[in-house]
Amino acid sequence: MGVRVCRAWQARGNRAMGALMVLALNCSAASAQGTCPLAGALYEQDSSGYTLRFGPKPSYDGASESFAVAAPDFKRPLTGSVGWSDRLDRTLGRLTLDCPLSPTKAELDACTLWTGVLYAVYADGEVRLLPEPGDPAPQSLLLPDFARSLLANSSSTGFSTEEIAWDAFTLVECAS
Amino acid sequence: MKRLLAVALLVGLTGPALALECVFSRAIYAEPTLGYELRFYPTINRDAANVSHRFMVVRPDSDRNLRGSISGNMGVSRDTGFAGRGCPNPEVTGIEGTDADWEACQAWKGIVYVLADGGAAPLPWQDQPAPQTLLLTDFGRQIRYSIGLGPADAPWDVFTLKGCSR
User: Fold this and answer.
1) Alpha carbons B112 and B100: distance in angstroms, whole number
2) Quick check: A89 and B137 CB within 8 A?
3) Dihedrals φ, ψ of A8, to 5°?
4) How many domains, chain A?
5) Tell me: the pLDDT tens digits for A142-171?
6) Which residues of chain B have pLDDT under 70?
7) Cα A135 from chain centroid (whole Å)
8) A23 contacts chain B (CB < 8 A)
């Protein structure tokens, strides 16, 4: 994981040095409207009752953000973490259940229900990478292939559900 | 006269980008940072039954397009997109190619969503009106590595409707 930069800009492309101006503008705009920070924000799916809440701090070293996903018919929450891709060009999410402490790569794969690029979708339709915990919470979060992946990996991880989920979550509540 | 008025209203409501009603299978999308294009074209009878859409990825500063297709849309499966170069062309040659062939020619594979109303939705069929914005998940990063591009030449993952081919 590398140094965090303003992701709003990263998502908009990074071709020209002149784009640094855009970086500055976007970052200041983001902090000015920040009434609801991502940390602590609650998201849900109308259609399924699944919820997703961002935690105040990472769940383990190396992750930059943490979240939890709860299914309406399964008691224990799934553990989510977010980190940068190797070359720092995408925010990658991972959702696990009952991983051992300090898992090996094989162990981590075996306890993973979903992994993929985690996208933030804003009210104006703009799509960016996931912002930092203190940045304004986007209107919705998209976890590509989340629902299908959950079903495909449920038996191997011990997760059990009858709820058919969708891949996007909508912001419903800020941290109190 | 009534028809003229209706057309004028339609143009006024949808704005210049959508002034022409564009069927999805003729839509042209552009990626805003570098100008990558997706050019959709109709599927053919010989396509596999689960292929729902076809498109070309037109790259700026390159003569070589990537061939793309979208498949799935059964049960809980998602609209899965694929783009590659030098892939087997079974609908023309009759040769399916091995899994290794397809893996070797893959430039991108991911889920395709329509972005609308601040959320994400599945794709319409190819004979329906073209949606305004598409998200090809992880497109830029995979293209960057599969084609071997520098960080500044990697496109973003969102494409917006730009026009319509005839």
Assistant:
1) 24
2) no
3) -55, -40
4) 1
5) 999 999 999 999 989 999 988 889 999 999
6) 1-20, 73-76
7) 13
8) no
**In sequence order, what are the beta bridge partners of A43?**
A52, A171
Q: B157 is written with which tokens?
A: 């993952």
Q: What is the extent of the structural domain holding A109?
A: 34-174
Residue keyed to tokens 């109709």: B42
Return the residue in A145, A151, A170 with the most chain B beta carbons within 10 A, the one to mutate for interface testing.
Answer: A145
Is A48 inside any structural domain? Answer: yes
Nearest to A173 by CA among A52, A71, A33: A52
Q: Do A142 and B120 touch (CB under 8 A)?
A: yes
Using the predicted structure, report yes or no on whether residue A22 has a pLDDT greater than 50. Answer: no
Residue A8 lies inside a defined structural domain of this protein: no
To the nearest whole Å, the CA of A15 is away from the closest chain B CA by: 4
pTM of the model: 0.79
Contact A144 B137 (CB under 8 A): yes
CB B52 within 8 A of CB B43: yes
The answer to the question of residue A4 being in a domain is no
Measured in residues, chain B has a length of 166
**Alpha carbons A163 and A45: distance in angstroms, whole number:** 11
Domain membership of residue A93 (yes or no) is: yes
**Beta strand pairing status for A42-44 and A168-173?**
antiparallel
Choose among A120, A122, A121, A100: nearest CA to A111.
Answer: A100
CB contact under 8 A, B111 and A168: no
Residue A26 scores a pLDDT above 70: no
Please indicate whether, in this complex, the C-beta atoms of A121 and B118 are within 8 angstroms of each other: yes
Q: Across the interface, which of A12, A15, A121 has its CB nearest the CB of B119?
A: A121
